[in-house]
Queue: 4 jobs
Job 1
Amino acid sequence: MVLTLDYTCFVRGGPQGEVGVDPEHLEQAADQHAEKLSSLKGKRDSGQLGFFDLPDDRSTMAACLEYAESVSGRFENIVVMGIGGSALGTQALHAALSRPLHDSRLPNDRPRLFVVDNVDPSLVGGVLRVANPETTLFNVISKSGSTAETMSQFLLFLEALKAAVGDSWRDHIVVTTDAQQGFLRPFADVHALKSFVVPDNVGGRFSVLSPVGLLPGALMGWNLPQLLEGAAHGRNRSLSGDFAQNPAAVWAACHHLLDTRCGVHSQVLFPYSHRLRLMVDWNVQLVAESLGKVDAQGRRIGPFPHGAVGATDQHSQVQLFAQGPRDKAFTFLRVLNHKDDLLIPDHPQGLDELAYLSGKTFGQLLDAECRATQLALTDAGCPNALISVPEVDAHSVGEFLMWSMVATAYGGELYGVDAFDQPGVEAGKVATYGLMGRPGFEQERSRVEGRKISDPNYRVI
Ligand code: PA5
């Protein structure tokens, strides 16, 4: 069972009308496809784009499963410390592949999973209060092995763990980091901690199918073979030389043309699925950090990735989508078969107006809302596409993850930027080091403290 992409309403003159990709431009994109594909393949062949090959790395998957098996039944909680690409994929997979509301159930057949992706003390302290270190496994994830947010959490949880379990703290920590760089790798080596490697040629936001996502997945019992199989399938389709049969290339080209030629600068991923809701956050980071860049000509470029969740956001954002500016491209994710579907019961006397709901299922209602909203936005002249997902399972999720990553890589080729760096986040990081008094960043501290960005004339006190 595979995903399908219908982009009829992305194309100008389609059912949504005049806001859309000019068919001629799409033909030009098809003509350029061989060149873009060969550039990507070249980068892959030269070993720069390791994410393409993660679905084939069955030995890493086996190592994650083996470790999970070795600690099976020992822990009530898994606490993942990580941020950005070291957290969002795991959160999205947990929402998609664990049982709904998994963490609120007790007792549980699998541990609860807490992904601590912020340094807000209310989150970090909150996790510390609910996850007793004695029954918790801490997975610290940082590709660079030095990210301040993750390191500060690590210091806190490490101290709590040592206080709670003494010398056996080592059995409660598993490290996922680069093979060489950063502070975590030598720490793991010195203390003989269990550790996994984030491959050097896999960037943070492209790392969900490495031990970054696979290890929590193994511990949580997600179907990893299916996940990787789906990803491999998605990858193979996304490398097709036939543009019209290549979902990632078509999706990327349409988004690029909508942004650069049609004034449609926002991309809204709109899953009609509670399970897929966190794919939105994962995708936002993927697109934003990869494509929001200064290009070789010094132009600031990049689409604005955004998200909505059906049916929830029908009662929040759809008003804007339907009647606000037509500067957004929507991609609906429609789930064809909702597992665990529920029947809406017969209406009691006095609620006859609800008869139309009785006997239908919640899945039917959600699906009707998805179709209806797509139609409503089409009628409102908004460009949109539809990805049909047979069912939310590991295979389809793996395929979608890979489509998105490959589409983003194509986006880099189309915009002419490096989709795999993130120079724009450096300035804030360095300024934080200065403010926090990290040795070597003294000048930055004086610069930040001396810089005036507030004028008393423009303050409301
Ligand atoms: O995609 C990226 O590279 C970033 O979002 C990183 O994942 C994020 O900054 C965390 O970095 P690290 O894993 O090195 O702690």
Job 2
Amino acid sequence: MAITGVLRPGHMQLKVLDLDEAVEFYSNVVGLVQTGRDATRAYFKGWDERDHHSLILRDAGEAGMDFYGFKVADDATLATLEADLKNYGVTTERVPAGDLLETGERVRFQIPSGHLIELSSQKTDVGNGMGYINPPPWNEAAERGIAPIRMDHALLYGPDIEKVQALFVDVLGFYLVEHILLEDGKTDLAIWLSCSTKAHDIALVRNEEPGKLHHTAFLLDSWEKVLRAADLMSMNRVTIDMGPTRHGVTRGTTIYAFDNSGNRFETFCGGYQSYPDWEPLTWTWDEVGPAVFYHDRKLNPAFLGVYT
Ligand code: M3P
Ligand code: FE
């Protein structure tokens, strides 16, 4: 098995203003599949995800993120990474199995940017509805609403992103794929980190205020589906922040829009696949516009300034 350690983003718990409204939005407009509900939360997955859930919506009376979790290979890996984090000086806590539906114990810790990150190794495989023997390529869940394949990545806003990078690289086995430099030519404004061959599994933008969410991204498999997503957003009167367009960073095609709580989400079609031995790509301050929006070549004011 070549992929070891941290495998992929596992879950994001998002705070919403009104759970019923959010459930309706993420089911019918975003087109995620609802897989569960508990006292305060609703659970969703993309149509081609197999684990019980990736997005959890919590009735919180406000917007933002509670935590972002990664799936690790197995229980032994979870215990090893927990010990490695402690040796690195990170305080960790075990959240009991079953706290999230169909999910085993989670190791939770705070990173220097103020966000809560989790690792877990067990989540019930509920399948993608197409079975494991002679499966069809897609089913009706792949066409309802925007219908992303999976939750893809998150972009977090907070301070001390170089410390976050060190922790993810030195302890969790991630690598830097791309970064944008500030005017001084030395300090990073933003970093894109991968634990896989994806161009990013997590990204961070430097920001004074800790613990903030810029966006959660959902994967589509073609530029045409990005266009279809934009059509559906307009048909459903969804507020689009930017797009459809392309990122210079990651070369991904993209739309940013807001859910009814004001949380930004991205419908993203990945640009290229990356490898841990590749030299990271650098974007300089004078090219920050095209780094983020390749066609407009400038940032829109809401894009950097609005987060939850
Ligand atoms: C992405 C992406 C920023 C750039 C964001 C890029 C906030 O969201 O998926 O590559 O500068
Ligand atoms: Fe993104």
Job 3
Amino acid sequence: MKIICVGRNYKKHIFELKNSVPEEIVFFLKPETAIPQKNQPFFIPDFSNDIHHEIELVIRINKTGKHIQKQFSNTYYDQITLGVDFTARDLQQRLKEKREPWEKAKSFDNSAPIGRLISKDRFLDINNINFTLFKNKKKVQSGNTKDMIFKIDEIISYVSEFITLKKGDLIFTGTPDGVGKVEKEDILEGYIENEKILDFKVK
Ligand code: MG
């Protein structure tokens, strides 16, 4: 399986990092090794002093698809969850300045913890879902999928023009504003609406 992550998909987050609004979808990949073992804490890696949390709505692809038309995108996933796109912000900044790829800052081991999968059919409108991240019981990020610049159906269609999607692939759909540093002993909890979906400790 592979993990596809959309970047710069919420305006307020784009502005907090002083990036520009993209004309086309920005995406990058994380390998399977970015998913931690179940119930494992997130260990801060040695190569960064500024690991940021980015809470994101995640969808799980349920069948193979290539050149998927937007009107059929909704048949290519039936489960959603939350994930944290952990980012070594200091390293990413250095890579951006050198115009090098982001992988070292984004795709390292355990950089994509995900929560419990739930059926998308539980939601009347996938483009109007609230999700939040709490750090040590304090709300640090909250988003609503209606604020995505590129909606889920567009993302699936666009990505499948370049990369064949397969059952089990995950798509991280971008983070809202409020990204910030994690420290050892932090407890992160993610909610979709009022339901806890994600819960782990930083070590
Ligand atoms: Mg992200």
Job 4
Amino acid sequence: MTPSFSASVLTLYPEIFPGPLGYSLAGRALKEGIWSLDTIPIRDFATDRHHTVDDTPSGGGAGMVMRADILARSLDYACQQKPQLPVLAMTPRGYPLTQSKVRQLASGPGAIILCGRFEGIDERLFEARSIEPISIGDYILSGGETAAFTLLDACIRLLPGVMGGTTSGDEESFESGLLEYPQYTRPVEWEGLSIPEVLRSGNHAHIKAWRQAMSERDTRLRRPDLWEHYRSVQVSRPLARGKKDRNEK
Ligand code: SAH
């Protein structure tokens, strides 16, 4: 089987991979050849005896910066191997990773992913090569590898044939602009807590309405940013269409 999605990961720690992506859905899909993974050890492209890949920050400051020349050599090698793949770099200075970005990537041929370490990457690399900087959130990790796991995991579960029996995930958090409703499973009673009555009623219209209300409540409380956007989209819709959409739901 020719993989529909290939990942080439440039890293100082190739032995970390496939790591969590070797298990469960992603692991099975890797074995089945639905996606493929290459790791490219950045250190192999160093030129000195010590395989140096970093140097002190120009202008001063703590830590070390990954050298543009070494990174470019490793990246050019990856691009030669897989010229059709877009190039991403994991960095907290990047564009935020969202579910729609994940969908866009998952529908493409895969990605070359550059993982940073230390204080990050010499900025000239981004000027000299076509690279999309991507951030997985507003916090600082010690390396890009865990960010690459996150990005790849999110893409792989969307590839055709990976999620098997489940739906395309239309109702999941973010797909509708809201967080998903809370989930429950048996036992019906646990530590004096019951599964909400409505979910056991068998009345699908009531269940749908309850889930929508819970999604809205939790989004409003936990993610005022998403709620604001969701509300503004609802309000800007023409009235007639808004009514029709509500009835359809
Ligand atoms: N000094 C940098 C952070 C470096 S963290 C800054 O303040 O912007 C070291 C490496 O971890 C980065 O080069 C990047 O590859 C990765 N990393 C850290 N946080 C990340 C995030 N939120 N998203 C994606 N990659 C991240």
